[in-house]
Fold:
Amino acid sequence: MKPAPTLSTAFLYPAGQSLPKPLLALRKQRGTALVDMPLPTRKTENWKYSSKYLKLTDDMAISLPAEGKTGSSLAVPGYKVAFLNGVMMPEACEYPDLDGISIQSFSDLSDEEASDLADRLDSTLDNKAVQMARLNSARFEDGLLIRLKPEAVLDQPLFIVHEVTAEASGSAFPRIFVDAGRHSQITLVEEYISSGSAQVMVNTVTEFNVTEGANITSIRLNMEGENVQHIGSTGVVQQRSSRFESHTVGFGGPLRRHDLQVRLEGEGAECKLNGVVVTQGKQHYDNHTTIEHVAAHCNSEETYRNIAADQSHAVFNGRIHIHQDAQKSNADMNNKNLLLSNGAEIDTKPELEIYADDVKCAHGATIGQLNEISLFYLVSRGIGRREANVLLTMAFINELVEQIPVEAVRETVQGRLNHFFEQTFQEA
Structure:
């Protein structure tokens, strides 16, 4: 029997040493625990459809240098933090000057602050289920700590631009931790972009600690190039009467993977998860979500839509777990999928696991193609077949795109979708 592949030891040696001692110690501890870590295979349930796309060669283990200038496809109308190859670039940042809001790089933390952070990193994620997040914990070179004091409100969105410069093979490990105090409020936009053509890997982790009454909106826009493998993890823990809203927009690549885990620990907590994915060529995109209803009287709403063209592959796996004490839970999950060619593939697996008896839960999934009758109707009214295809496809996802609460992101997504349509549909 062929032995299971394990993580190469080349990935266990981070380069940067500018972090405070408590974070260096944490990183070393996490690295030691990764020795002989099995890599996911087709037999790994939550990597069943994606393991064959994961290519971790030794030359990718090298940390990409944090040198050069950063860019963004967004016309940033708010505050900005720039990461280059996983390291913050202070000269490209525009911080808010508001009471009650602190934004610091990990490398600027005092030993006391770093020690407190080290105790909290990874606390929002089930690392057994999100095993590649453990690699980030062993390799992050820098990170961003956002702290909001009680009642603090960020008046404009905070844009975090993550850029990788792929002039040579390597990897980057961006890290973010958001600690939102009671009744605080923030909108966070993460944009992932790239330049260069070498084969690289980006492994990201973002964590949210959402305390009582806090309101967080998270927008995640993945627009990296065809040479970038992207593996991302987002962990959320919510307390009483808090609200977390997520909008994820992803464009495919050789491997795109995002794990989103939300844990509703306080009564009255609410979360809303929206996701849009488009793939073409031989691209692959995999979204895995988990919502844990731990406390009673919590609400969750989840809507993901995938579009796959050519020979591409999209995956959605959504799991809702209603714990025994989570009475009066209200949970709804919906996944709709659109195949634009006979060679495309979409796999969907909605899951409900319920241990409470007084709940209201629903889930559903559909996979289909463009309706030929609708196409015929539009063409018979003088609309070209290409334009008819675009109209119907855009209508399929526009409901979710329009819900993105930041205009600059909506405009960027629309522009990228137009490019997708130009490549996918030809005038008939």
Notes: The chain has a mean pLDDT of 93. The chain has one domain: 15-370. The CA atoms of residues 154 and 176 lie 17 Å apart.
